[in-house]
Amino acid sequence: MTPEEIFLQWAPAQSIWSTWAIPVPFAQIPRQTTTLGDVGEAETFELPAVQFQVPANTTVILDLPGPASVGMALALAQLGMRPVPVIDGSPGSSLGGVPAVGETQVRVQMGETLRKLSVGARVLQGLSIAANARPVFVLDALRHGNEAANHAAQFDNRWKTFPEDFPAAQFIQEQGITTALLVQEKTHQPSEDLAHVLLRWEEAGIQILAVGTEEPKNPRVIRVARPMRFRALWYRALELLGLQNGLFDWSGDWPRGSGG
Fold first, then answer.
1. Over the stretch 135-191, which tens digit does the pLDDT of each residue have?
2. DSSP string of 93-112?
3. How far apart are CA 258 and CA 188, in angstroms?
């Protein structure tokens, strides 16, 4: 599969949620994707067990480390839900894996995430998912990088998620969705950037549930804590200024999601 074909398996034209699938990491998958997985690997791709309940009329937000998020999204896809990757990071020249001599280190390792997105496209190819199936938004919990790491000679590929990366609460509610389930390793509050999304949904009447994968149990209702600069006019610009050298090169006339 080409990078475009891989992306279109994750963001098919018939899905009402594909507008919000972010193409950035897909655009940097090599044309020769054999290094990231092949047909045979897709046939033996082991998916995690879904050990938490997903109530009816519920969307899911997976904020797990990238490979785990992709794996869980595919497991939920087999239950009829639609994965929507909202991963906005660039892997860097080494694809986020172990760099070769002379290559730049990266703040967020993305090689395994890209491999699973590539192999996962073949998994999705074999599934029949309704155009209006409930969405599973896929994040990488490691997007903020390791703040304690040595930053010398590192490509700063950290990123944050923003309200514009997700559909507005009104659109979600128009699809009959009344609840959002946040899946993290632990059932604590969402990360600060994701809180800007979920608090908007909560204020619009969407109930927010949370569940942890470390101690799977029935989801519980949470109240999202108000993050700094909530609804501030310059919030996005200020947050992006806080990420150093987080620039990347990619090309192609790919769709880009927007919300409110």
1. 999 999 999 886 555 555 567 888 899 999 999 999 999 999 999 999 999 888 999
2. TTTTSSPPTTPPEESS--HH
3. 27
C-alpha R_g of the chain: 18
Task: Classify residue 190 by its DSSP letter.
Answer: P
Residue 65, token pair as written in the block = 């480390």
Of 165, 232, 167, 162, residue with least CA distance to 193 = 162
- In this prediction, residue 96 carries a pLDDT of 45
Measure the CA–CA gap between 43 and 61, rounded to whole angstroms: 26
pLDDT per position as a tens digit, 116-136: 999 999 999 999 999 999 999
> Which positions of the chain have pLDDT values less than 70?
31-44, 93-104, 146-154, 233-260
What residues form DSSP beta bridges with 83? 136
Residue 4 phi, psi (nearest 5): -65, -40
- For residue 183, which phi and psi values (nearest 5 degrees)? -110, 115
Beta-carbon contacts of residue 196 (< 8 Å; ≥ 6 apart): 162, 163, 227, 230, 235
Distance CA 246, CA 174 (A): 35
CA 223 and chain centroid, separation: 22
Indicate the burial class of 1 (C-beta count within 10 angstroms; 0-12, 13-18, 19 or more): buried
Whether 61 and 181 have beta carbons less than 8 Å apart is answered as yes
Tokens of 163: 């309200």
What is the pLDDT, as a whole number, of residue 60?
A: 98
3-state secondary structure of 61: strand
113 burial level (CB within 10 Å; 0-12, 13-18, 19+): buried
